[in-house]
Amino acid sequence: VDIDGTFTQDAGNVVFNEAGGDYDFRVESSANANAFVVDGAGFRCYMGHNAGITMGGGAARKLAIHNTTDNDSGGIQIMQWAGANSSQGNISFGKALGSSVGDFTIVTTGRPLGRIAWYGDDGVDFVQQVAEIGAVSNTVGANDMGGDIVFKTSAGSAAAPSERMRIDEDGNVGIGTDAPDALLEVGAGDAVTEIH
Length: 196
What we know:
The chain is an all-beta fold. The protein is built from no helices and eleven strands. It has strands at residues 25-27, 36-39, 44-47, 63-65, 112-119, 129-141, 144-153, 162-167, 173-175, 184-188, 191-195. A seven-stranded mixed beta sheet has the order 5-6-7-8-9-10-11, with no helix packed on it. The radius of gyration is 22 Å and the shape is extended.
């Protein structure tokens, strides 16, 4: 179907590829033939490109934004316009141990719950991770979910980033230790400094 004008659907669902073949859906702009692409075979969406670029090994992510413009437009903006109240824009991560959508199986203590990761091109690909901020579960129970925030960086020769600092579920901060038992605990080898 070639539609040169406006397409309007006032009622009912609009379904593309209902037969289930691995066909892509693509939106073009005047400047980019791949302004928005849904990869039917890979179950992924791309903006600015028609294929995924692997980061950190494994499969490409489900959503990828590619930008070749020399500015900061290659990002995501979340803005809230809701008057004088406490609502806010947000990014939420969720983790369950169930194997299907809606299978709420409780996570275990120490389980990674989500992360923000940074990669740099090493001349070959984006395999080498530079740093990350992540969350891990701590005390776990029904309607009771404690958690830690973990900060990691990668030394130049390291294959993966190492934990450098942690804020645990009680608000204790550990630098050089993943189990701080004081408001601030700094560990360096056998030397430990604590601030209570």
